[in-house]
Amino acid sequence: MTTFDTPQPSAHATLLFLGDCNTRGTPDIESLSYPELIARQCQVRSINRGHTMTTCREGSRYYQAFRGRAFDLLCIQYGLVDSWLTFRYSPYVLYYPDNPVRKFARKLVKKYKKVCKKLGLNKTIGVTNVVPIQEYSQRIETMIRDAAPRPVLLIETIPNKDNSRNPEIRRYNSALRELADRYTQVTLLELYSDFEGDQQTHYSDPTHLSAEGHAYVANKLACLLEEKQLIKGIQA
Hints:
It is built from 8 helices and 7 strands, in the order E-H-H-E-H-E-E-H-H-E-H-E-H-E-H.
């Protein structure tokens, strides 16, 4: 197990959140997303760099922009889009930073995938994850090592109401657990099992957290911060 010295955080702790739509929050509840709620609940500064339809690839770019800036805890929540199985050889067009060319390219890719599915090519050639799991683990591990000796919190992806997506989500969550077991300054926030079953009020649709779901995550995160003493002076 790799160990880094734990730093003494500042009096006004700053939490940097990198993630996808379930970190950003849907447009109607962005002010109620769990990074915003944890800032108010725990009296910390929260920097929310969650974005819709993003993967750890974009996360690596967002992190680079913060390498020389002060933060006390890095929170990473990717896996929803990374684990998505799509037609092999289908290009993935980034959403951020977005522009008209990328929007047009995504329309072409969507049409291309529809044609391939109609022709049965997806079954013939096969499917693959948007981000292969080895790359997923390597990119997150790179951020963990670069952030050292500051603590890192890895956040599990919640189950999708489309059950066909959940085996891959569980596999990518397992990769997060392996990283948490490997590094002593890394903690895993386990959410998947909490959201299994009939937690309908925690979802605004089959994929996205509702306001109640964000509140649940914020409360569990606050308790974990206090229990593990990840940030000095936090009280749940």
